[in-house]
């Protein structure tokens, strides 16, 4: 017999758990299943499990079903994720006549009546089996219209299910849709179903399925008949699309299959636009709800969540809102008003943010447009916008539109098409297409290779499109240019002839030549500067066009070698060619070309000093000469030939200053900036700042004289000075410079020629600001700057995906953000930094291979490799592999340092690599490497000593101070505590060399506080306790100042709180006077400081510390009678525990939460405050924990403890009813627990006190015969029977003989319990004898002879004792 698919999947999940079945075995079992068999049968038949194990698994499945009210769908949804891939069941799914997509997918979220959110949002929604035994068939349903005859089940949606039936009147197949069984008796669900049928039937459009009629069964369940759609869903078509050829095989042009699917999608947009015109929005557009017929039909189905929005009906007489206005009661539930706020309907991966946040009144056509855009996203990428492992996670992403760009998933998607998706799925409704028609029009325009409104085309893109559409004309245009050059050669030949017959023509030819030379000159200038030809893919065309005048110059100069104007034109041409070589080849090749230009200009020098030449020619000459030296200065800086670079920069300044024009002043300032850059790179920071100060002063005084392009270039002087100031420690001054540069760049008019340049400048400035503020431990501004830089960098990469420089910029931004969060963020993603470094290493490897002469690419590659070593270390990589990786970095860094001793940054990297590799060897106790460790320290110190002749930078001081820190650790590892403390003190002295401006940011202060903490530990190790506490006091003072100066930086508060807490721990460690009291005082201070930090800013260790500290303080407050304080402390601890479990849902973290809630219940009861909500929360938490962790022994023990403690609180308040409830819950799960007997005794106590003395004593009596109970348990049994006597006396329903018989039996058992307690030694403790004497619960037996005999026998030697 075929079992429902849900049960098959449940059995398999528990087989994985109980029989250790693996995927390979499961695959074999599914493959061998017979059509009428089950997975259980197959596993038994193949020997994977035996019959006993099968029964055990069946029992576990039944128990799990019972916990979920025998709902197989809910049971299956609770196991998330499944322990096996669902694809293994494809064969089984086909056997059960249901499409695989319908069985495990993101389903439409439909809130339960009375609730606003999805139950269990962290579980993936699953659809029940189409073969569920609860589903009635049409033939068995009372009242089924005789007109329809059922054939088979077809599909199930969020609310209804569809059967294929035959319409007997017209003999055609129709789709008969009825409400699902578990919604059938819910009136609100029925109402929704009826509305769906009504709306679907009211929308008359080729893209909406026609409804033939509606009705209801005898029991009132509704149904409706509609056209049966043959075909496939868009979801299936998307899968097919992505399993075939590439979507864009020829660059921009879509494949035929994609073009056909996009045309179908246009039909969907038009259908939705029609619905909007009728005042209806769909609210659940997704590929599953779009059907593609075999004859070109495209239909939007499942209008079950459709709603009526606030539509201006005056514009449209044919409006569904008006048609339905008379049916207000029926349709009120689907009108989007403020009353519908908070409810979440739809499918999370396709929801707009307003839909995911439940802001129903804000929904309108643009919400459906978003879902259409999300559907287009899936078509183009083959995946959903918000991937996730559960509906809850996906829903959270949808609320904030947390999605990656489609081009990141499929880089071949054209930028304009991606822009259409981005606009349709914009976070704000106002930023989207306002109608589905606008969306369709833009997509249609893209398919027709026309401009789209979502994307502003660059000129080079317009050029490419124009070239695609005019290929013949483009080809002929290039030919015409070449013919023009050939014609110039003919003119040159004509001018060189000496034939007298043509002498009269020479004047005319010369005039023509001048005009022709001007035309050629203007043409190659235009080719050089035209933005359209600077785009990726057109470099070769640009180079070819620029090289085309070369034969003309060679030919003509051979005839006119002394013409200075012609030689100047040739130099100008070569200069433009050199610029392209710089961009497309290598700096070395460009240097060769510019040196040729320089030589040409040097040879022309005397000739251009002639007074016969026009002034404009002289100015052209001087401008070209100054600019050539500027370009050479730039290129030599790139290739690390800094003396050459600075020499050319100074020459450029001298030549530029010789001519008083705006352009020459601009060149002078740019050359000064380049000079300063080389000075800074070689460590001469003071000289660089002096140079830049002068350049900035000149730029400010003459800003209005410069062109827009030059004004942008001149902002580089501000940016460069900011880098210098940051290196010297003036971080805040650097930020001011960068902000000024950004502000001035905002004033520049953006044109097509300069837009990319402006964007790149802004992105690089912002990433510098993010990096330096992050290094300074100013997390919030760092992340703000990084986010701005990331947006711009992404724009640049999108426009120029092949540009490695922009790719490097993007990776730099991402790494800056990841590093900032890793240093100062709560629970950083351990993979984020590592992944970013890996990307950077790959990119820098490409850059080094492409440009081996650019030394800084090698520097950045090696720096990234060193950082990766420590990222791997934090990820737990094996020590021997870490040492090997670090040593592998050291060798090339050492080689680089020897090659470029003039670059301080490289020397600092060398010193850091030496220190870090030595430190790693020390950490991993590599005793064989002790001599090598010392050698590396010595070399590092020598390397840093070489920098003493240069102006100090904070990086030098920081590395040198870290050297002493590591040396101190080396002493500490050998227990030379005093020496270690001395090294750390020397480290602090080194830090005093930091400039005053550097102390205005947190980083050096944090470093100093860390060093003081470390020195304190060493002092303690050396026995210098007072000195150690003095260092801790100083560290706390530093951190308190930081918190005061930077109140909005959470990491500073967290560090101060940690210091205060550690101080308290040290007090207890040395057991000083009043240590406990003073330690608690420091703990309170710590908690007060960290109270201002949101819980989501704390890491898990801090949350756990907060829970423990607050619980400890609450206990102290309670013992001091400060119950309100104790309750407040427990409330804070509970919030921290809840946050901890939210991040790490483990049984241990749940145990912390339960512990805190138990304490809080007790304190609130003592304060006579309501605890109902808290008690319900605790009970739900325990239930969830038992279900989630499968009743393991540890989990059961935790649950029992929680129930028992809660019961004890209620018992102490004489609320025996609640006490009995929680004890009975504990007793249910105590079968295998040694605490079972104790729980039974306590439960009996509660029952007896509530008057159920028969049940209580019946449970207690057998325990008297047990020999393994604790002494207190025997005593409590005695109390139970004594209480039963008192309860018996108050019961008027029993006859006197029965009462007497029971009383005698109870008395005997009470004395027996006391005897056993005494035998076990309970009363050996005098305190217990006092408790025994005062126990009011024993009053009912104190006057009996048996009791007197017991006390006389057990306490004969107590002369002061008086029997009651």
TrEMBL record:
Signal peptide: none annotated. This is Serine/threonine protein kinase. The keyword 4Fe-4S does not apply. Residues 128-142, 354-364 have a biased composition (Polar residues). The chain crosses the membrane at residues 369-389, 472-495. It holds the Pfam family Pkinase. Residues 125-145, 344-365 are annotated as: Disordered. Gene3D superfamilies: Phosphorylase Kinase, domain 1, Tetratricopeptide repeat domain, Transferase(Phosphotransferase) domain 1. PANTHER family: MITOGEN-ACTIVATED PROTEIN KINASE KINASE KINASE 20-RELATED, SERINE_THREONINE-PROTEIN KINASE NEKL-3. Residues 148-447 form the Protein kinase domain. CDD domains: STKc_PknB_like. One of its GO terms (molecular function) is ATP binding. SUPFAM superfamilies: Protein kinase-like (PK-like), TPR-like. Keywords: ATP-binding, Kinase, Membrane, Nucleotide-binding, Serine/threonine-protein kinase, Transferase, Transmembrane, Transmembrane helix.
